[in-house]
Design goal:
Blueprint: E1 17-18, E2 25-31, H1 37-53, E3 57-63, H2 87-99, E4 104-106, H3 124-128, E5 132-137, H4 142-154, E6 159-166, E7 170-176, E8 188-189, H5 195-198, H6 216-221, H7 229-245, E9 251-257, E10 262-267, H8 270-273
Parallel strand pairs: 1-8, 2-3, 2-5, 3-4, 5-6
Antiparallel strand pairs: 6-7, 7-9, 9-10
Amino acid sequence: MTRSIKAPKLSIPKPLTLRLTEFHCVSLTLVGCGGTGSHIASGLISIAQELSSRNIATDILFIDPDVVEPKNVGRQLFSQADVGKPKALALAERVNAAFAVTVGYAVRKVDDLDKFGLEPPRNAREESEQPLCVVVGAVDNASARRVVERNVRAADGRIWWLDAGNENHSGQVALGNWGGKIETRLGIVTRLPIPSAQHPDLLKAQKTKRTHARSCAELSAEGVQGLMVNRMAAAWACAMLHDLLLGELRYISVSFDLAHGNARAVPLDMETLKQFVG
């Protein structure tokens, strides 16, 4: 007589639904206009145009203190004619001319006064009419990320932070708006853990090989850094932003490795958010 063996129960994570408050305007701030940021810029314009087709206004601001150098041409979205110009200015001029949009720029470092489109409301009606604010971080240093994190935490969930970072052949993109415990109700969340909660190492200065002290453009020119790693980080960042604003976001971060052709997304489900659930 054959004995039946009881199959173990399969544990299927329960997916969660992210629900945003209704918005009629979006404020997009790109911090960092270099290796990854310059390629994110064109994606921001595409998203802004799609939002416009749905009668949603968009304000865009580029922030970067650096100027275009010869080594940036080709690897970043700049030409020889841009050499010597501030990156934020050159990038804003390029997308303004190509897409007939108006993009603001600031030639400086991000600082603690940046509110990323969030204005203090004077009454309840103004608070309900606040834009949906997103800061897109494409910086290569922990100090700039720490400034962004402080400002996002101070906004009490009202600013979304999309962070894109990379190594020589790999990278990660993460999205969130809340630095504390995450509450879920009936499978719905309105907040996601900020990138630095998902990846605490983002706020730590790198103390590693000598190559890390050089720029992405220099590493790429020497063959140390892959030519396409910044473009891949930018593509994932724009995909997540699109799903946040125009689609259905099903994951909170993604890591990729171009050297081995791998990508791994962290799904938006209860198992994933257990460590952040209040």
